[in-house]
């Protein structure tokens, strides 16, 4: 008795990752990166008090709707530019370079939004001083996070989002 095994065909639609999982991945990265950096910045600006969590959430949400969407767009652009202008460099080298640039850009934006939440915009000289102090103080964490994320998570997340 001969039997014929029929293998089900898998279409690209069945393999593709659902959109809600892609959105959850991006939100997870935003919370990890933005939450830790704005948390540190809020602590540096305000210290720890009863108002800390409310100020932190406000700083995070401000960054989440302003700085982070721009950051994701910039990261996509920088990735394309790095692939085009540094084709002979390894992916890890390109990712570290992009990570350092993104750390500086995102850090500056989050430091600015956190400083605005902390001191307001009326006293611009104080705002600039708080922004610069926050930027310099939190930069080591931002560089560390971006280096780790660029080397480990970014390639995996890019593959996940393209699927």
Describe the structure.
The chain crosses the membrane at residues 20-44, 56-75, 96-116, 128-153. It comes from Vibrio inusitatus NBRC 102082. With 163 residues, the protein is mainly α. It has helices at residues 12-15, 19-46, 52-65, 67-85, 91-119, 124-162. The protein has one domain. Helix content is 82%, strand content 0%. The longest helix is centred in the last third of the chain and has 39 residues, at 124-162.
Order of helices and strands: HHHHHH
The average pLDDT value, as a whole number, equals: 82
N- to C-terminal separation?
A: 42 Å
Stretches with pLDDT under 50, minimum 5 residues: none
Give Rg in angstroms.
20 Å
Secondary structure tally, helices: 6
Protein name: DUF2798 domain-containing protein
Keywords: Membrane, Transmembrane, Transmembrane helix
Pfam families: DUF2798
InterPro entries: DUF2798 (IPR021529)
């Amino acid at each position: 008795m001969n039997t014929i095994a029929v293998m089900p065909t898998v279409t690209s639609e069945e393999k593709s990752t659902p959109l809600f999982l892609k959105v959850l991945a991006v939100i997870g990265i935003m919370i990890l990166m933005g939450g830790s950096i704005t948390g540190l910045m809020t602590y540096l600006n305000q210290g720890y008090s009863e108002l800390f969590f409310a100020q932190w959430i406000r700083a995070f949400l401000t960054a989440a709707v302003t700085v982070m969407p721009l950051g994701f767009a910039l990261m996509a652009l920088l990735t394309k530019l790095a692939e085009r202008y540094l084709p002979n460099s390894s992916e890890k080298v390109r990712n570290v370079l992009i990570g350092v640039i993104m750390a500086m850009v995102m850090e500056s934006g989050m430091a600015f939004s956190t400083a605005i939440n902390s001191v307001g915009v009326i006293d611009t000289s104080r705002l600039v001083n708080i922004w610069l102090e926050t930027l310099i103080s939190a930069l080591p964490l931002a560089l560390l996070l971006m280096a780790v994320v660029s080397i480990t998570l970014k390639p995996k997340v890019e593959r996940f989002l393209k699927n």
